[in-house]
Specification:
Layout (H helix, E strand, L loop, with lengths): L4 H4 L10 E6 L3 E7 L6 E6 L5 H8 L7 E7 L5 E6 L8 H8 L11 E10 L5 E9 H12 L3 E8 H6 L9 E6 L5 E7 L2 E7 L11 H26 L7 E5 L5 H9 L6 E3 L13 H7 L9
Protein name: MSHA biogenesis protein MshI
């Protein structure tokens, strides 16, 4: 289910070929263009004061911006909260959650675009949902700019689903430590192509600029603590089997060092995440690649 469904319904155009992943970042728009029998295309366009529509227009001469388009919002462009599932018919849930979360987010209900995905069933059978909320007024200019080209918006989603779509379909749960360049780190737990858990960490957007000594001065310990909290919640509160591996996908010069140091603080194997074949050298575009591959996920926001 797409978070932009209600906007997308306003438009109709012939179904284009290819797949395009676009990531909204604080300082750039990042693109991944996948076309059958063609090499993948990658590009970054600088963004000034979050003028994403202008950056999209400027990128047209640099990369093929056609196809089924999946847009990824960074944590700055959306708010994610977990609430009790409203006891209303399914077709009324989206309308109900706007008012349920209005005091939990900073976006006015009349400007909200909301969607949700199911959360874990807690003790006593209480159902939770994860609600993703974005501002229509911020998204509308970009949507209109993209619609003017031979591009069809299929999904607007969040980083967590973009990264999760990169994972192979496995019975064993894996925890991923993920980051887009200059964005905050997110922790996700993926199993059988489903996103079971997510946690957004604040204050680590500059981790790529740190030296090994600086990483050792509290950063790795803080990250290790958040990983431990996440695995404890997954295993004890959600009653899931232990995770089998921790995968690091943080595009930075010290990525291997970070993985080694995290391994010292856990009994679970810690590895550098293996990108899909053919994209090994494009780790900084991982979320864009994942967005372009979102059709492989069973669910997306």
């Amino acid at each position: 289910m797409s978070i932009i469904a209600r906007i997308n319904q306003l438009f109709s155009s012939p179904k284009p070929t290819g797949s395009l992943g676009i990531c909204l970042q604080q300082q750039a728009l990042a693109f991944c263009s996948l076309e059958k029998n063609q090499p993948a295309g990658f590009h970054q366009a600088k963004v000034n004061e979050q003028h994403y529509a202008s950056a999209f227009s400027q990128a047209k001469n640099k990369i093929n911006l056609t196809g089924q388009c999946n847009i990824v919002l960074s944590a700055k462009q959306n708010q994610l909260v977990q609430v009790d599932k409203p006891k209303v018919p399914v077709e009324e849930i989206n309308a109900a959650i706007k008012w349920q979360i209005k005091d939990l987010v900073s976006i006015a209900p009349e400007d909200m675009i909301v969607d949700y995905y199911d959360g874990p069933v807690m003790g006593g059978g209480l159902e939770k949902i994860n609600v993703v909320c974005a501002a229509k007024s911020e998204l509308q200019p970009l949507v209109e700019s993209i619609h003017q080209d031979n591009c069809q918006i299929q999904t607007i989603t969040v980083e967590e689903f973009a990264f999760a779509s990169l994972c192979p379909n496995e019975d064993d749960a894996r925890l991923m430590v993920c980051q887009q360049p200059n964005e905050e780190i997110v922790l996700i737990i993926v199993k059988n192509n489903e996103l079971y858990f997510q946690r957004r960490l604040r204050g680590m957007s500059t981790i790529a600029s740190k030296t090994e000594d600086e990483l050792n001065m509290g950063v790795i310990d803080s990250l290790s603590l958040e990983i431990q909290r996440s695995t404890d919640y997954f295993e004890r509160q959600l009653k899931q089997a232990p995770i089998r591996s921790i995968e690091v996908l943080v595009p930075m010069a010290q990525e291997a060092f970070l993985a080694r140091k995290l391994a010292e603080n856990t009994n679970v194997p810690v590895n550098l995440f293996s990108m899909p074949q053919g994209y090994e050298k494009q780790r900084e575009y991982a979320a864009c690649i994942g967005a372009a591959m979102l059709n492989n996920m069973e669910d997306s926001v």
